[in-house]
Amino acid sequence: MNQIFRNTALRVSCDQCPLRVLPHFREFSQPELDFVSSFKTAELVAEPGTVLLAEGMHNAHLYTILSGWAFRYKTLPDGRRQVLNYMLPGDLIGLQGTVMGELDHSVEALTPLILCIFQRDRLNELFVNYPSLAFDVTWLASHEERMLDDHLLSVGRRSALERAAYLIAFLYKRALAVGLVSDGRARLPITQNLVADTLGLSIVHTNKTLRRLVTLGLIRWQGRACEVLDIEALVDVAGWEQAPEKKRPFI
Amino acid sequence: MNQIFRNTALRVSCDQCPLRVLPHFREFSQPELDFVSSFKTAELVAEPGTVLLAEGMHNAHLYTILSGWAFRYKTLPDGRRQVLNYMLPGDLIGLQGTVMGELDHSVEALTPLILCIFQRDRLNELFVNYPSLAFDVTWLASHEERMLDDHLLSVGRRSALERAAYLIAFLYKRALAVGLVSDGRARLPITQNLVADTLGLSIVHTNKTLRRLVTLGLIRWQGRACEVLDIEALVDVAGWEQAPEKKRPFI
DNA sequence: CGGCGGCTTGAGAAAGATCAAACGCTGTGG
DNA sequence: CCACAGCGTTTGATCTTTCTCAAGCCGCCG
């Protein structure tokens, strides 16, 4: 359990990266692809529950998720936990630690995970020689900031029901973008405990709130996962005005 | 009221930027300085209450605060408002809009403001020719992300009293870093309405909570401002474990 | 002088937390 | 194969925090 398996050999070449063909991601030039291929040193497989990065680490790695779900969180000294965001395929993990020297949040695998490991100390080279990729890194940081803005608005100003609807709609949209939704049905691999720590609510109240969404026919809950039944209605309950997502970069 | 005055001429040359001498900011090389000087097109003066950037804008400007305070916020369709963060001298405004094409939050002046205006469309040039500055931009985005992480933890998991203490301690530390604290006393230019919208509380409850901090002798409230009396105690009440701030960049 | 924005206070209502207990599934060990 | 432990989910009862409503105060500015 909670083990990390490291592969020195590249299993998936960046040229044939399965993410690259998704319409959600921008296209790369060959020189960019070549650099990213050399930037990637290995792949890593992690089990659910593995803590990939821990608060306070100084030499955190830099990863991109190739497949699976993870989440980012912080805790107070007495153990209260706040989930900050979820990471899906194409998301960069550990940028804060790489750019600012120290990490102040933790990252845990939610499902089995495959990660691309990058050479943290060559980020400088990326900035010097591949300005377009450097811009992408900044884009990704801005994108994370935007998601946090939304979460903060949600936790600060939405009611429990609205918050729950927003979170599930948000995760659905993200899953959709990376092709994890088949025939309109997505299975979001979250527990109610995690939802509670994301929404800033207690587990009990989270359960009662989710139950209301179930009764309304918007979601279904089964086996540590949430199935979305009516995304439109969820967005509506949340009062969420989303900007349409354009093509995004990833490294 | 709420007017913007634009000066075509540079009043303060970047070489003699008053922020540059603060120990809080990293030193720049001459070529960097020269570029930033050319990147800056003008200065702008704004009155308190001026909305510098509004949600949904497509051609948002890119600014750095030279002096004064501003805040960033989002609103729900029915008007509920959440303050996301505060911006002080040295902070970049409008990066999200510049990098991602569209802005999804608003920015308002809290005090009289002096801003440096940058040529948004030359950001590309910055990335191509000044990788060290590009890295700084990414650093700033990561820094914003880190502050948001903290705010989210606060709003999601701290009690009203802890939240209030955290916010005031946070603002004090930020003011301190840019030299706005004289003999241990800082005057934070916030209203209780704004505090409420930052903490995700009602005005009434915010008032009662702040009153408790006043009674405890940690702060004083007078004339649309908060005076910090005991920063250590505030940090303690908040249960805030802060990483020591290192030197930071700015553009 | 009057209006307005910001602060303050009390009282009752509502949302959400805590406590307590139980159910069902899964994996493990006898 | 069954007993059991552990985790995730569910539900009811009660307690606490926070919200809403209502009103009054103060200082500033037109």
TrEMBL record, chains A, B:
Keywords: DNA-binding, Transcription, Transcription regulation. Coiled coil: none annotated. SMART domains: HTH_CRP (SM00419). The keyword RNA-binding does not apply. PROSITE patterns: HTH_CRP_2 (PS51063). GO terms for biological process: regulation of DNA-templated transcription. This is HTH crp-type domain-containing protein. It comes from Devosia geojensis.
